[in-house]
Amino acid sequence: LRGELLMRAVVFAAASLLVACTQADPPAPVPQVDEAFFRCSVQPVVTKWCSSFACHGDARRYFHVFARNRLRAGGTEAERNAPLTDEEREANFEAARAMLDPGGGGMLLMKPLEQDAGGYFHRGATLFGGGNVFRSAGDPDYQTLVQWASGAKEDPACVEPGSNQ
Known about the structure:
This protein is mainly α and 165 residues long. The protein contains 6 helices and no strands.
């Protein structure tokens, strides 16, 4: 009898899990944004503002950024200043895209924007005592992020700044 009760409990738990999984909302669609615009316009912005070791140049962070002379996916200390590898560029693109909402906006735009300008709390704004990355939505680098999130495109043949191509 004890074994039968245990078996019923296991079956009930498995069935409940199956029902819960089938009723869950489907994953949100991934924003369709331009890789070339990211590589040639957005990558320099996130490198400049986000990739220091104390910020998102730390692989332990959910959103982290690979950059020359900063966080790298591999290699030796002597190779740290080499151009990004294809894998690092793709990882940066996918990480930034994951921080966007499908309809535009998202954490990539809201976290680095000053709260007084409509942004969200960002620990980096207080950590270094200098305020948030972007004081206003009019900042040219912020506008680059907005353009990308809004669907801006670039010639796929564009050359990423600092790539030594």
